[in-house]
C-alpha cells in the first residue's frame, strides 16, 4: 500500500470524526526554533494557542488567497520526540497536516503556489509528534490503578500517560512584503478514551485537524473584526 493510499484513508477517517475532539491543549510548550524570532509572541488567552501574535492594524479583508508552503517536520531539535519517528511515518504526518490545512482553508480562500497581491503566505512546522500506544491506551483505561496513575501524571505535567502528543508552530506573512502578520505556537495531547483509538497516530491526526479548523476560524474572526486587530 503506497503513501497516498494510506493518507487518503487517514483523511477519510478523520473527516468522518470531526465534531468529536479527541485532544486538549497542553499546559505549556517550548519553542523549537522554527519561527526564529519569538519576541513578539505572548501567552495565549482562552481559545488561543499557547503562544500567539497578531499584528495590529492589518487589513485582513484584502486577502483572498493563501500560499501554503510545504509543511516542515522540524525534527532536528535536540532531544525532540520527532527524532524517534521513522522517516516514512514523519512524511505521512507532514502530508496529512498539509492536506488537512488545505481542506479547511480552501473553503474560504483560493489556494495558490506563489506570492502575489492579496495573498497570505502560511508557514507551518510539526515540532513534536509522539504516537499513542494503542494496547496501552486500552489497558490503562480498563484497569483502575492505571487510570489513577495517568491522572496523577496529567495533573503534574499537563499530559496524560499513554496518549499521543503533537506540537506545531506557524506564521502568516504578507507574501509580497514578507511582513509577519500573525504567529502561533501550540501543543495538544490526547484524551483518555476506551473507544475510537484505531492507530498509533489517532491523537496526532486529531490535533492536526483541530488546528486546521482553528486557523480557518481565526482568520474569519480577523476578517470580521471592526477596527484595529
Fold and architecture overview:
The chain is an alpha/beta fold and 229 residues long. It has one domain: Lipoprotein like domain (Double Stranded RNA Binding Domain, 2-Layer Sandwich). 35% of the residues lie in helices and 22% in strands. The protein contains 5 helices and 9 strands; from the N terminus they run αβββββαββααββα. Strands 1, 2, 3, 4, 5, 6, 7, 8 and 9 form a 9-stranded mixed beta sheet that branches. β2 and β3 form a beta hairpin. α1 packs across α2. The longest helix is centred in the last third of the chain and has 23 residues. The protein is globular, with a radius of gyration of 18 Å. About 14% of the residues have low confidence.
Give the SSE layout:
Blueprint: H1 3-17, E1 23-25, E2 42-43, E3 51-54, E4 65-68, E5 72-73, H2 87-105, E6 110-112, E7 119-130, H3 134-142, H4 144-157, E8 165-174, E9 180-190, H5 202-224
Parallel strand pairs: 4-6, 4-7, 5-7
Antiparallel strand pairs: 1-9, 2-3, 3-9, 7-8, 8-9
Low-confidence residue ranges:
4-21, 76-81, 133-141
**Gyration radius, in Å:** 18 Å
Report the average pLDDT across residues.
Answer: 76
Spatial gap, N to C terminus: 47 Å
CATH topology: Double Stranded RNA Binding Domain
State the shape. globular
CATH superfamily: Lipoprotein like domain
Number of strands: 9
What's a quick, concise take on this entry?
The protein has 229 residues and is α/β, with parallel strands linked by helices. It has helices at residues 3-17, 87-105, 134-142, 144-157, 202-224; strands at 23-25, 42-43, 51-54, 65-68, 72-73, 110-112, 119-130, 165-174, 180-190.
